[in-house]
Amino acid sequence: MREDRVILDNVNLTVNKGDFVAITGPNGGGKTTLLRIILGLLRPTAGKVEYQIKRPNIGYLPQKNMIDSHFPISVREVVESGLLGTKGLSDTERRARVESTLAKIEMEDLADRPIGRLSGGQLQRALLGRAIISEPHVLILDEPLSYIDKHFETHIYRLIAEIAPHCTILLVSHEMSQISSMANRHLLVDRSVTECNASVHYVETGCGC
Questions:
Q1: Residue 75: predicted pLDDT
Q2: Which of 122, 111, 106, 116 is closest to 79 using CA atoms?
Q3: Which of 19, 69, 141, 155 is in the most buried spot, having the most CB atoms within 10 Å?
Q4: Tens of pLDDT, residues 142-178
Q5: Which H or E run contains 35?
Q6: Cβ pair 91, 60 in contact under 8 A
Q7: 0.85 surpassed by pTM
Q8: Which residues, at least 6 apart from 155, have a Cβ–Cβ distance to it below 8 Å?
Q9: Distance in angstroms (rounded) separating the CA atoms of residues 188 and 22
Q10: How high is the pLDDT of residue 65?
């Protein structure tokens, strides 16, 4: 609830290992709230979230407006922070993982730049690197295409296509044209959660069911 207002009601959702779930819906409909409850960042007022894996490794790309861009940290440090809690990697392996991820997000030349000196799209790419560096079991992406230019938008599609066979993905986006063909499930979130089986999805009116 938010200010005594119900954000989501009567949600009963099962996500299976290997699913690619595309999530859409109107602004304020509860998409980000749903993701934050799944992540354990918000506690539901009723019901519970259960994982079959005791402690799944989850990568999370939040919306950019949830990040303090004035925090004194570099791109490299942002990306490497995605390895916090990851055990069993040597220092050499960690460095290699960071360099590999910087290459994937095309930010090798900006690795030491403070995030306060990044454009919106560059910060989004750094946060994406943080989300994917640990090779997570579950990847949760909240509007990953925000602020991204057309070149890197195409690159993100390629990255997601590479990750999808090895990971469970939940992705919120208003840009459903390309993502619809990649996902195997589509959810409409508007105060509740409805699974949509249509081939075309519209944010303004729901989905094409």
A1: 97
A2: 111
A3: 141
A4: 999 888 888 898 999 999 999 999 999 999 987 777 8
A5: helix 31-39
A6: no
A7: yes
A8: 106
A9: 9
A10: 67
CA 58 to chain centre: 10
**H-only helix segments in 133-175:** 150-163
Tokens of 129: 């690197």
Q: What share of the chain is helix, strand, coil (3-state, %, to 5)?
A: 35, 15, 45
- Other CB atoms within a 10 A radius of the CB of residue 167 amount to 20
d(CA 147, CA 7): 26
Residue 189 half-sphere exposure toward CB, CA atoms < 13 A: 24
Here the tokens at position 144 are 């990953």
198 vs 186, higher pLDDT = 186
User: 55: number of CA atoms within 13 Å, CB side?
Assistant: 3
Residue type, 73: I
Q: Which residues pair with 139 in a beta bridge?
A: 59, 169
Side chain identity at residue 45, one-letter code: T
Cβ atoms of residues 175 and 145 within 8 Å = yes
Which residues have C-beta within 8 Å of that of residue 166, sequence separation ≥ 6? 135
